[in-house]
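hiii so my PI (J.) wants the whole complex modelled not just the main chain, which honestly fair. so below is everything: two entries, each one labled with what it is. i double checked the lines twice but i was tired so who knows lol
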Amino acid sequence: MTNLQEMGKKARTAAFGLQKLTTETKNQALRAAADALCANSAEILAQNARDLEAGEAAGMHPGLLDRLRLTNERIEAMAEGLRQIVLLEDPIGEVMETFERPNGLILQKRRVPLGVIGIIYESRPNVTADAFGLCFKTGNAVILKGGSDAIHSNLAIADTIRNALETSGITADAIQMIADTDRSVTAALMKLDDFIDVLIPRGSAGLIRAVKENSRIPVIETGTGNCHIYVDKEADTDMAVSVIMNAKTQRIGVCNACESLVIHQDVREALLPKLAAALKTKQVEMRADEGIRAYLPEAAEATEEDYGTEYLDYIVSMKTVSDVSEAIDHINRYNTKHSESIITENKETAERFLNEVDAACVYVNASTRFTDGFEFGFGAEIGISTQKLHARGPMGLKELTSYKYVIYGTGQIR
Amino acid sequence: MTNLQEMGKKARTAAFGLQKLTTETKNQALRAAADALCANSAEILAQNARDLEAGEAAGMHPGLLDRLRLTNERIEAMAEGLRQIVLLEDPIGEVMETFERPNGLILQKRRVPLGVIGIIYESRPNVTADAFGLCFKTGNAVILKGGSDAIHSNLAIADTIRNALETSGITADAIQMIADTDRSVTAALMKLDDFIDVLIPRGSAGLIRAVKENSRIPVIETGTGNCHIYVDKEADTDMAVSVIMNAKTQRIGVCNACESLVIHQDVREALLPKLAAALKTKQVEMRADEGIRAYLPEAAEATEEDYGTEYLDYIVSMKTVSDVSEAIDHINRYNTKHSESIITENKETAERFLNEVDAACVYVNASTRFTDGFEFGFGAEIGISTQKLHARGPMGLKELTSYKYVIYGTGQIR
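here's the output for the full assembly
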């Protein structure tokens, strides 16, 4: 059994040292870690082969096997990811505000690391390097709990980075990977609130729910996206088809993909024939209410459950509304507060939608697929927050920081 | 049994409306609520008398009875609190950032309400009006769960405000008070994550721990303060005595009061005799390690437990250190990340302490008692956060907000 208390203590000690590192020292260590990943690729691939073998033996789905598979190219991409983080501005130490009080106290609000970040993930092994890079650049220590399927790959990547840190004169405990794949470890990790400041789950809706329900550590909820596109009566219907096709089919398995269409009744005749024709070219299954099916009898009947489902598949639900209010109500009822878009030429209607739809990212005349740290220009992304506390939407480096108030006095008392 | 689901739905609906209110409408309603509290003082006092009677019958401590007691003056102070909130700048709608991407998308980061805030508190009935005022000004709906001791007072205050809102044409459900005082309701409230965006517990360390451990809703941890003052070898010892006396004795029951002194060994001789003399004037009990007791034999022996205790009493623990590093280590080990102060004339030593001590507020040459929304100039305070997520230190209006990204496109796809 992993000694989590011990790991927690080591992470806390590491974090104390990391907060003091200069930007240049951190950047040098990130470059060293990138180089080490490339230099150690043979060993990483050998460990990855063990995971692949176990996956094949267990009858893992080919799609999942592909996500798990590392290649020299993918390792190079991981290293490149770290080198990109070197180029990003270091937010730590920034003086966010300074103000003086009538009693002469001078207050400074300074940006500081969060401290120790725990990340629980099920995804591809590249998350190991990515998450380390972002946490390290912001002076945070990280404890990682990856999926059991990728455990040998994850450990090989983490060990490579740990060695590179030590060679750079930095504590290896800036990154710790939990080797134990037992689920009880995840449960115990969630109780480690004495040592971990924030827990970020990345993966399935089930994982995220379990963490949210059981964690004593503050959680940043990420990921699930039941994203809508509302086509208003004053929409450019060609634009609507183009945006819907992009949001629905460009990549189906991602959280910012569109899952549901809300369609103004007055635009059905102009929109639905060409939309259906386009969706058919990608074999997208349509599930619709009666208002849509009157125009598209080939669509299946949508159930209540459909409107609440993030398909992550070539399926789309469709709902007719009689005005923008009904569209907003429908979206606020079923969405996961991720990304929502309206297609309209009417600025007032757009502004109402943007103001009243409750989501991290609300769009007018654009694809929901842009909700992404890179697309937003943050240069990186640790996840997309769907909660309102701390950070909302794509989380880059700044979202991995906290602040402290530093107060300069000359003996002031109350 | 209270129908919490129903309250949650009502709060969500109310929040949807509140986010759209103009600043002027909100201010008018706050003024109306303030006037109503004064106009309805007889009824509020009558309900408060019921709570006081029950408290006396149950043998409640006189100090607690005093906290529970309302008077015309205290009701006027509550109203004045609401009027003060009118004067504060409305943060909602602020465009925090605007940026354009190479593809022509224009992104705006806009400040929005959190949505529905749950507050669980044990404190005085005035929190009911205060919490409402801060949440309302920031466009949030609030669900309140006060202590059973003050239930009649709290309900009378909430009903008065609800009536005032309705008269102003605003939904009364902007404030809902849970009438049921059974503890099971608190447990159920913590599971209401479909309707409540943030839960803020205000009260004892036990209450806060229970909420943190059991809530599915994101929590902002507030309050407990095991605050230290470190007297460096290069301290102005007269300033040290003055700051310590203020931080320890000006008000003992508050979270920003000093609980523990860390003293450089080289300053003992100059500091301890006059410090002990001053502490004696207020009957402060001293609990110290051997290094201090060598100079102050009258001090009791401090145990490990003393260093971890927030006394909220006329007791102070004392610890000798040989340098600032040891002081920082000691404080980071035992503090609750609230407020810490160093007394020194050496700027380098001060800067090191300010950087390396992990707390919401770190002071040089000032009393920890300044950690307070009013003292910081925020004009109000919903609590003092001791966690690193979302908000740290005194929380004013801005800390009761979130943001959303609003993205303007012209048909962009990926």
